[in-house]
Amino acid sequence: MRAVETVQPNAFVTVEYTLKDDEGELLDASDPTMGGAPIEYVHGYGMLVPGLELGLLGLRAGDTKEIEVSSEDGFGERDEELVMLVDREDFPAEVHVGDEFVAESSEGEEAVMHVLEVREDGVVVDANHPLAGERLHYSVTVKSIRAATQEEIEKAAADLNEAEEEVNPDPVPQELVTLGRKEPADKKDLN
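The structure corresponding to this sequence follows.
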């Protein structure tokens, strides 16, 4: 196994961190007294938000760094179309603001939804990630770096492939690939 001295593709990395928002509020940390744990991952397989993974590239064990991650390179922008009113009958009798539910599409894809409002006729939910639209502030310390084993690399690659299939389960419709750029009759078909 080759020696690995910096964070680079196929390196197994252990990182301690704190995560804060723009106001300095602590959102998450690897501190075990707060229920956290260091991040352990194989670099280069999208196991972290893109901005954090890029910010760690090239660091050495013992290095510390402040990494600011834009919403685009974090959990994405907020999509107001993901805030929707769902029929009340689709929820259990007891549902409260702040509850979290996992919805499953007919294709088997899962989406986490947070309850924003409970009405007589329905429940307003938000399927955005709670940190969507937020700039993230990480304070990191690289605890260790080593070459990832073949098994770790294969698992990271398989997890990446699975995640990509969840995000992009269908191939691009042929009518969008052709030079004529034929528009589908109903743009909702693309969602």
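The longest strand covers residues 136-147.
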